[in-house]
Design goal:
This protein has 130 residues and is mostly helical. It has four helices and no strands.
């Protein structure tokens, strides 16, 4: 059993941070599984085997959504931005920029869950390989 989800000594991390990290690792694993099934389905010629894999891929996507929901419930600002991006039609990037701007502007002093510098911590996630 690996402990790769931790980049700091686990015994120094608060319990909630360890749980958050576990769910981040789980989210990554579910996304990988979804992609792996997509590739397998692209090359599988047996319809019955493909049906089994399609069902399994759907299960992985359900797990992905549950992991994401858990993480969003613990990061209110991220949840607010997700609300502006998910289930919308139109330009995804445009919605993301608008949702981020609205989340930052709402409430005057910033949304709940924002970092002390007023950011949502999103910039620190760009390029992160966690
Ligand atoms: Fe899964």
């Amino acid at each position: 059993m690996g402990f790769d989800q931790y980049h700091e000594p686990p015994d120094e991390l608060p319990r909630a941070t360890r749980t958050f990290a576990r769910l981040c690792a789980s989210l990554t694993e579910e996304a990988e599984a979804i992609g792996w099934y997509e590739q397998r389905l692209a090359v599988e010629s047996a319809p019955d085997a493909a049906a089994v894999m399609r069902d399994a891929q759907g299960e992985e996507f359900k797990h992905f959504r549950m992991d994401l929901e858990y993480l969003l419930r613990r990061t209110p600002a991220w949840r607010e931005i997700a609300r502006g991006i998910l289930f919308q039609t139109g330009d995804i990037v445009e919605h993301a920029e608008e949702a981020e701007a609205e989340a930052l502007e709402g409430g005057g002093s910033g949304p709940a869950g924002a970092y002390e510098d007023g950011s949502l911590g999103i910039g620190s996630l760009k390029g992160a390989s966690r």
